[in-house]
């Protein structure tokens, strides 16, 4: 499947697929009234007309216990058709400096402290692609799901801005705009500013 963001609508719900390399996330939410519905993601393969995903997270895991999914899939011009009923249309390419998969590493500043890496089961992932962002907090051992949020973003001239379109912990946060400073140092993204409570924040994210 071609890298990018793919969007579909079904029964008043928005479906968003983000695909990069062998990784994808699939999120579902409603806009009016704002409501988070579900998200899942992990490493995928396509065999013929079958999509297989070995999940890293599943927001419904406590209910369904699902760690792997498979769906019939086929491809058309800039489209991905799943289960013969969901047609995802590829969004426009909007390449930006922070595009990619990022794992939370540590609180800044960088003074040689211990970092949380891919080997740690407790993960917070940020997936930024073509003007869309999502963060997900989860545990790959216990499959506990701790939360997610996403929407549109821009990163330019050291300013990173998020416009929240879904938020699993609090639907009332939808519509908020958050602005931060960013700096790239090697494979690290230094993310600074104020959190949602107005408190100073300094996070370091590492390119996955």
UniProtKB/TrEMBL annotation:
Top-level division of the source organism's lineage: Bacteria
This protein's name: Membrane or secreted protein
Lineage: Bacteria, Pseudomonadati, Bacteroidota, Flavobacteriia, Flavobacteriales
């Amino acid at each position: 499947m071609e890298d990018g963001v793919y969007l579909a609508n079904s029964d008043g719900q928005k479906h968003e697929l983000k695909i990069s390399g062998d990784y994808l996330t699939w999120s579902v939410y409603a806009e009016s009234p704002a409501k988070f519905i579900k998200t899942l993601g992990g490493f995928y393969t396509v065999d013929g007309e079958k999509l297989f995903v070995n999940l890293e997270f599943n927001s419904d895991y406590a209910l369904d216990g699902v760690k792997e999914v498979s769906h019939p899939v086929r491809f058309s011009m800039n489209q991905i058709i799943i289960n013969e009923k969901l047609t995802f249309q590829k969004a426009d390419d909007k390449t930006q400096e922070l595009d990619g998969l990022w794992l939370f590493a540590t609180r800044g500043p960088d003074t040689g402290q211990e970092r949380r890496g891919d080997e740690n089961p407790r993960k917070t992932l940020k997936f930024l692609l073509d003007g869309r962002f999502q963060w997900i907090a989860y545990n790959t051992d216990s499959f506990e799901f701790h939360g997610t949020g996403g929407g549109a973003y821009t990163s330019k001239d050291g300013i990173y801005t998020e416009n929240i379109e879904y938020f699993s912990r609090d639907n009332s946060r939808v519509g908020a705009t958050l602005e931060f400073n960013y700096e790239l140092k090697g494979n690290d993204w230094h993310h600074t500013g104020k959190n949602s409570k107005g408190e100073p924040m300094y996070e370091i994210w590492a390119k996955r």
